[in-house]
Input
Amino acid sequence: AFYRRIFKENNVDPSSIKSLDNFNKIPFTTKQHLRQAYPLGIICVPKEKIVRIQMSGGTTGQPVIVPYTRKDVEQWKKTMLRAFYIAEITSKDVIQITPAFGLWNGGFGFHFAADAIDAFVIPIGAGNTRNQVRFMVDFGTTVLCATASYPLRIAEVASEMGYDPSELPVQKMLLGAEPWSDEMRKQIERTFDAKTFDIPGLTEMGGVGTVGFECPMRNGLHMWEDQYIVEIVDPETGEVVDDGEEGEIVYTSLTREAMPLIRYRSGEVSAVKYRERSECGIEHMTIKRIRGRTDDMIIYRGVKFYPYDVEQILASYGIKHYKIEVKKDIKIVFEGENGILPEIAKDIREYLGFNPKLEALPFGSLERFEGKAKRLVRG
Amino acid sequence: AFYRRIFKENNVDPSSIKSLDNFNKIPFTTKQHLRQAYPLGIICVPKEKIVRIQMSGGTTGQPVIVPYTRKDVEQWKKTMLRAFYIAEITSKDVIQITPAFGLWNGGFGFHFAADAIDAFVIPIGAGNTRNQVRFMVDFGTTVLCATASYPLRIAEVASEMGYDPSELPVQKMLLGAEPWSDEMRKQIERTFDAKTFDIPGLTEMGGVGTVGFECPMRNGLHMWEDQYIVEIVDPETGEVVDDGEEGEIVYTSLTREAMPLIRYRSGEVSAVKYRERSECGIEHMTIKRIRGRTDDMIIYRGVKFYPYDVEQILASYGIKHYKIEVKKDIKIVFEGENGILPEIAKDIREYLGFNPKLEALPFGSLERFEGKAKRLVRG
Output
C-alpha cells in the first residue's frame, strides 16, 4: 500500500519496470516517507510476524521505526557474521560491545553475531569510559565494537588511569556509525597497536553490519550485492552517476521482509571504486569509504567539502579533537599547538581551496563524545 | 579452588558432606566472597567456555561479575520461559522491556525469552517515560516488563500526556527487582486494569526470572527446586529455620556451570509457605513474596520491620510515593492529604508497634524513579 501510493504520486506504472535497465525510473524512498509512515504504516507483513523494532532518530521530530521479522533478524546476524569472518573474529575472542543497547541498533547488531559464535561477550553498552577501560584490562578484551570516534576518548581515559593504550589487549576494532578519515584511522591504529575495520550500516537497511564490510586489504567497502542493490546518484538530479564519480548511496533491499525499501536515499556520500572481484576474493562491488552525509556537506564560496576532509588534514598533524563552526565564515577550532597553525592553514587552502579561521586550544578544551561525535556546528 | 579455600577456612571436610542431612554444615557464600573473586576468580570452567558476563552492584565498591556458559544462558532462557508460560505470554504479545540493557541483568533476561517465542519485542530499555507511554500506545504493548515501582511513574506520565492508564493496552506486567507490597500491587492493577506477576531473581543466581515465579493463583512464589536448593536461615545464627518462620533466603544452584554457588546468602527475607504441590499444579516448594532485604531491615526501639511493611499501610490509603528517613527517630514522608495523618499513625502503631513522625507533602514533591526506587534513607 505504501509503495502503491508512492508509485501513483510519481506517475509510475509498476508494470513498466520490467528489467534493471529501467530500474532508475522507480521513485526514491526518503527518510521523510518513513517518518510519515510512523509507527508501522510501511510494513509488508502482518503485525504478528514482527519480532522486534529498532529506531533511528527520534531525538528531534518523528522517529523512524524499523520493524524486523525473524528472517530479518537472521539476515542481520548473517551479514554481521560475514564481517566477523572477514575480520577473523572467533569464539576465542573477548568482544566488548560499547554502542548502546536498546532501540538504537548498534548494541544489538554486534550482540546477535557475537552471541551466535559463542565468543566471550561483554555487553557493556555506552558510557562510563573508566569502566570500559577497566573491563578491557580485567577481562582481556580482544575486539572492541564502537562508534568511530570513541577509541580516541578511550585512549585518553586509559592514559589518565595509567595505562598505555597500546598495551591494552585489544587487537581488532569494528568502527562505524559516522564517517572517519583514513588519517584518523592511522592515529587510532598507532595509539592502540590494533587493526581497525570500517563497518557501515544504517538502521533503515537493518542496522550496523548489514550492507557491507571492509576486508583487511582495505580496498574500500565491499557491498553485499546478494542483499542490496547499491546505486550512487547525483544528490541534486537524482540521476545515477558514472562509476568513480561521487554521489549519494541509494539502497534497495532484496532480502528484507518487514520493510523492504526500494531506492532508499541514504544521505551517505561515496563512489563506486570497482565492480569486479576484489583481490581478497570477494565477488561483490566495492565502493569508497563513506566521506560524509549529504546533510554535513559544507558549501563555502563555491567549494564543497565534508568534515571528513578537514579531519583528514588535522589528523595528519596528530590532532584528535576538533570542531567546525559554519556561520558566515568557517572557523576550525582544534586542540593542539599554536605553532602548526600556518601549516594547517596552507594545507586547507591547498587541498580544500578556502582560507579558514583557525584556533588552537589547550588539550582538553573541547567536548568529548561517547557516541557519535558532533563536530559540525552550523550557525 | 574457590570452594576448596572456603571449606578449609571453615574447617569443613567436603568428604563429610554425604547427604542432604548435613548439607547445612557447608559454609555460606557471601557477596563479599564474590567481590574478592573479581574479576573471574570463581569460575568453574575454562575462560573459553564463558559466553557473556553480567554485573551486580559496581556503583559503589568492587562489582560482582556473573559469568555465563552457553548452558547457563539456556538455563536463564528456560526458567524465564516457564514464567512466560505460567503468565500465558505468547508470540501474539507485544512485550515492552523497560529494564536497562547492558551489564545489569534486567533487560537481557526478559529479552532472551521474549525473543525466543517470536513475540513483538520493544527493546526500549530504561528511561524516557514519555517515550515508553507513546510506544505502548503506538505499538499496542500487551506485556510490560519493569522494576516493581516503575508502573507508578508510567501512570503519572501517561496521565500528564492525557491518557487514562487503565485504557492503555497493557494486560500483564512482570515486575521485580525490588520488594513491593500486596497493597501496592492492588493499586497498580487498579490503575492499569492489568494483571501483575511478581518475578524474583538475582544476578548471582543467573538474573531475573531464574529462581521462581508466581502463578495467577498468587499463593506465593513457586521456587524451581530442579534448579536451586532453597533454604531459609536465621540471619544471625545461620541456622535453618522452621517452615513458616521468616529468615534469609539461601540459594544453592544445581544446574549452573560457570559459577555454581553453594549456600549463597541472598539477603532476601521470606518464609517457606508450603512444600507440597500447589493448587495450580506446580510441584515445587512455595515461599512468601519477598518482604525486604536484610540490609533494609529497620530496628527501632526493639521493633524490626521493612519498608515493605510501611508501604503496605500507606498504599492502603492510596499513597504511592513515600520515603522513610531513619535517623535517631523514624520519619515517614509521603505525598497525600494531611487529613489522613492520624489514621496512618494509628495503623503504624497498631501493626508495626512504633510511633512514627509523619509528614504529608503535596503531590509531586518526592523524587520519581525509573529503576529501583530508593525509599529508605538512613541518616
